[in-house]
């Protein structure tokens, strides 16, 4: 259960800043993530957590600061760069193309092709069945457009995509928002599987209970700044609420 | 419709049967039109099912059809191109001027024809690239861009023709007539090229990564971008492909009349878009069907043809009937959406 943090972190974001116009959306923030660890990013809407994570996934370029992957300086300027560093993002709303089926989504941008250069639908579906069999054995709707899937099923397709392509660093944006209790449990199970494989996960959430259940550490942001990073074992829900709302570090941690 | 009582499996079935109707709809409509045509021609002894009439309908469909195949890709990727009709007229004008001006210096007629074809294809490629550049790199709404270029090309061809008609040199006109009228018996070149373009288009849409990217971009551009699809390049490619196909259509069109005027290709863009929509491609993008587009084109031309064969309805009502069918097609699309 405890995460070994003696080695090199999978990701380190050091003193990262990004402004939109005059607004500092992210202001000198540093976070890190170790193999097999889940780090929660908490904060109000507009606290800068999504912006921070979009810098890591290549959607935005930082004004200042450095990103290190496995101890080495990484240049991430677009989503393709992020993919090269095995960073995969699962966006709450942007995960899947609605009109395509599960296999087409799983392989979007990296289609398997036959020797003639045509997409190999049969092989892609077989691979999709194989990985879904491991991650979500109840999944059946392989040939329907994903718009016909439930929230949890969509989430599992998105996660399957990341896992299939050897993600080492996974960014999950509100993975359990809009999910029922059963489906939330399913996603929690999935996250447990991913941790066992040594994958590091940044989990963005509004929900403190989610974070306490799923995460090893939590980093709280407010007004673009990092309030602090705490081990979830060392803090209570109230401590974290205080960090989110008042931007105050817990007493004991400060001492 | 059935309210809260509807259970999940029922909903599923319902959406599936509607999906089937959605797939079969255009085919059924086409079959109904063919039956109607056959029935009418049996009563008034016209020639609906004769090889020459079928050949004529298909040849005339080819221009719009070839353009509509390209339009299917543009619309599937969430774009639109209103400029294709004017573009065709402008390219026709360019081709005629080029060939006429070279007629004095270049002796070989086949050579001249090849130059004309090259001019048509490169002009189409360039025009498509301009539309694509403005949409992708300059980030201007496709509707605005192509509304603009539509006006520009129309005005340019009017200016080139000085308000009148650009006519191809007489000997050249005779020489290139076979490109439209020739072929293998009733199987004329326009039909062959249309069939080739349609089959190739269907393959590209269904079986290549490019086709899938078009659907993904039209479905959700952000998802495609985050999936490391080069959205701008794919979008650009759809406009260039369409421009190229407008060039192909023009190559087949010029030999038919041997002239171009300010009224050449008027409303072709709307006929092409209508054919795409009737065929089941979603106007908002995200789903495209090339074979559907082919059927859409055939439906539109058959309506005109049948009205010409019968006295029951005036051929002047052609446009009204086409309009009703386009609106019906979109209503059917929405039914499908509501079912899922």
UniProtKB/TrEMBL annotation, chain A:
It is found in: Cell membrane. Keywords: ATP-binding, Cell membrane, Membrane, Nucleotide-binding, Repeat, Sugar transport, Translocase, Transport. The lineage of its organism: Bacteria, Pseudomonadati, Pseudomonadota, Alphaproteobacteria, Rhodobacterales. This is Monosaccharide ABC transporter ATP-binding protein (CUT2 family). InterPro entries: AAA+_ATPase, ABC_carbohydrate_import_ATPase, ABC_transporter-like_ATP-bd, P-loop_NTPase. Transmembrane segments: none annotated. Its main location: membrane. One of its GO terms (cellular component) is plasma membrane.
UniProtKB/TrEMBL annotation, chain B:
It comes from Hasllibacter halocynthiae. InterPro entries: ABC_transp_permease (IPR001851). This is Monosaccharide ABC transporter membrane protein (CUT2 family). It is found in: Cell membrane. It comes from the Bacteria. The chain crosses the membrane at residues 21-42, 62-80, 87-106, 112-135, 142-161, 181-204, 236-254, 266-283, 290-307, 313-332. Coiled coil: none annotated. One of its GO terms (molecular function) is transmembrane transporter activity. Keywords: Cell membrane, Membrane, Transmembrane, Transmembrane helix. The keyword ATP-binding does not apply. GO terms for cellular component: plasma membrane. It is a multi-pass membrane protein.
């Amino acid at each position: 259960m405890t995460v070994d943090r003696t080695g090199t972190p999978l990701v380190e974001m050091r003193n990262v800043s990004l402004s939109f116009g005059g607004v500092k959306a992210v202001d000198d923030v540093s976070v890190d993530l170790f193999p097999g660890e889940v780090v929660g990013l908490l904060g109000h809407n507009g606290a800068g957590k999504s912006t921070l994570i979009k810098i890591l996934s290549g959607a935005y370029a930082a004004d200042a600061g450095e990103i290190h992957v496995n101890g080495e300086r990484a240049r991430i300027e677009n989503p393709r760069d992020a993919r090269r560093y095995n960073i995969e993002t699962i966006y709450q709303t942007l995960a899947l193309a609605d009109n395509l089926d599960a296999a087409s989504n799983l392989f979007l941008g990296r289609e398997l092709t036959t020797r003639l250069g045509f997409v190999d639908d049969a092989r892609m579906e077989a691979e999709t069945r194989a990985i879904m069999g491991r991650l979500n054995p109840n999944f059946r709707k392989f040939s329907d457009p994903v718009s016909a899937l439930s929230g949890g099923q969509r989430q599992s397709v998105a996660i399957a995509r990341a896992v299939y392509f050897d993600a080492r660093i996974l960014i999950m944006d509100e993975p359990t928002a809009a999910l029922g209790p059963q489906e939330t449990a399913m996603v929690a199970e999935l996250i447990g599987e991913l941790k066992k494989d040594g994958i590091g996960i940044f989990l963005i959430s509004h929900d403190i209970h989610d974070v306490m259940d799923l995460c090893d550490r939590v980093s709280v942001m407010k007004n673009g700044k990092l309030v602090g990073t705490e081990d979830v074992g060392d803090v209570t829900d109230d401590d974290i609420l205080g960090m989110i709302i008042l931007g105050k570090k817990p007493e004991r941690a400060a001492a | 419709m059935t309210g809260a009582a509807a259970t999940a499996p029922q909903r599923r079935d319902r959406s599936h049967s509607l999906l089937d109707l959605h797939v079969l709809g255009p085919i059924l409509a086409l079959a109904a039109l063919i039956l109607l045509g056959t029935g009418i021609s049996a009563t008034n002894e016209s020639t609906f099912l004769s090889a020459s009439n079928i050949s004529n309908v298909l040849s005339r469909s080819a221009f719009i059809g070839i353009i509509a195949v390209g339009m299917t890709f543009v619309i599937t990727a969430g774009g639109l191109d209103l400029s294709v009709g004017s573009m065709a007229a402008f390219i026709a004008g360019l081709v005629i001027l080029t060939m006429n001006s070279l007629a004095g210096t270049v002796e070989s007629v086949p050579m001249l024809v090849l130059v004309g074809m090259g001019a048509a294809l490169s002009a189409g490629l360039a025009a498509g690239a301009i539309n694509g550049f403005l949409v992708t790199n300059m980030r201007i709404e496709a509707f605005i861009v192509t509304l603009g270029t539509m006006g520009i090309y129309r005005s340019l061809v009017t200016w080139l023709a000085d308000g009148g008609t650009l006519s191809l040199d007489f000997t050249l006109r005779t020489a290139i007539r076979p490109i439209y009228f020739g072929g293998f018996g009733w199987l004329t070149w326009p039909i062959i090229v249309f069939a080739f373009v349609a089959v190739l288009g269907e393959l590209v849409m269904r079986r290549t990564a490019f086709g899938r990217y078009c659907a993904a971009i039209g479905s959700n551009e952000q998802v495609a971008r985050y999936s490391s699809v080069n959205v701008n390049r794919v979008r650009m490619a759809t406009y260039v492909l369409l421009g190229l196909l407008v060039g192909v259509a023009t190559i087949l069109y010029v030999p038919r009349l041997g002239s171009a005027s300010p009224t050449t290709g008027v409303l072709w863009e709307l006929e092409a878009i209508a054919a795409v929509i009737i065929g089941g491609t979603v106007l908002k993008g995200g789903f495209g069907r090339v074979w559907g587009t082919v059927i859409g084109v055939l439906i539109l031309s058959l309506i005109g043809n049948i009205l010409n064969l019968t006295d029951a309805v005036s051929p002047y009502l052609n446009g009204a009937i086409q309009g009703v069918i386009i609106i019906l097609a979109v209503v059917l699309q929405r039914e499908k959406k509501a079912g899922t």
